[in-house]
Each structure stands twice: as structure tokens, then as C-alpha cells.
């Protein structure tokens, strides 16, 4: 909403995808800016990097976990309602991780497009960070 209000001359297109696919689209000039996430739990548990089931989208992984059971790491916002209802529960004594995000754009990107987009992202992140202060970024949950 911020970008549409402050830079109405820019077209906004949102996509959900795997980081490498989004980076490829930036490199090809299909997207001007991509926001990619770098979950940290893979660094702590390298032995799980080839797990039998992996989901690159939290809600998709959550739905699989609800149907099949198991354990996974999710952003708290993705599972908050399921924790409250008792469908999922936290695994005690598991580490919590940050969920850093990066804005990626091509070296030769048009500053008239990229700069307002980055300013808007900074504004949104600042607002969200203030309202979420003190809440965990990620947690571990078992299935049914």
C-alpha cells in the first residue's frame, strides 16, 4: 500500500517463489526487486538439508505437517493460530532463529524504480519491527 500511495507511477507485481527463481528473474530483467529470505535453521542442522520432505513456503509446509505429522521450523506468524488452537505445539528446548530478508536488484537497475521501492520496504519493515518487538522469529513444532 505504501508504494502505491507514494509512487503511483510504478507498477507493482508480487510473486511468491523459491529464492533462486526470483534471483533468476531479477538477473533476466523480469523483476526489478526481489525479496528473498535466508532461514538460519539449515545452518544449525546441516544433516537435515536433504530431508525427505521440504517446503519452500511456510503455509504449504504447515498444511503438510497438519496432514502427515512430523516436526518443522516455521515463522511464528504462519503457525500462531494453530498453536493457540492446540493443533500444533512447540517442541521444548529447541533453538529459535532469525529469519533475515534481503532486497536484491540488478547492478544496472533503474534508480527511479529501485529507490522508491527500497524506501517503501524500509518503511514497512520499520513499522512491522516496532509492532513485533520481543516476539520470536521462528519456532519448532511437532505434528498431531
Description:
The chain is of the alpha+beta class. It has one domain. Helices cover 42% and strands 14% of the residues. The protein has six helices and four strands. The strands form two sheets. The chain has a two-stranded antiparallel sheet with strand order 1-3. The relative contact order is 0.22. The C terminus is likely disordered.
Strand content: 5-15%
- What's the pLDDT, averaged over the residues? 82
Helical run tally: 6
Poorly predicted tracts of residues: 133-144
What characterizes the major β-sheet?
Answer: 2 strands, antiparallel
Q: What structural class should be given to the helix and strand makeup?
A: alpha+beta
Brief summary:
The chain is 42% helix and 14% strand.
Summary tags:
single chain, 144 residues, alpha+beta, two-stranded antiparallel sheet, 14% strand, disordered C terminus
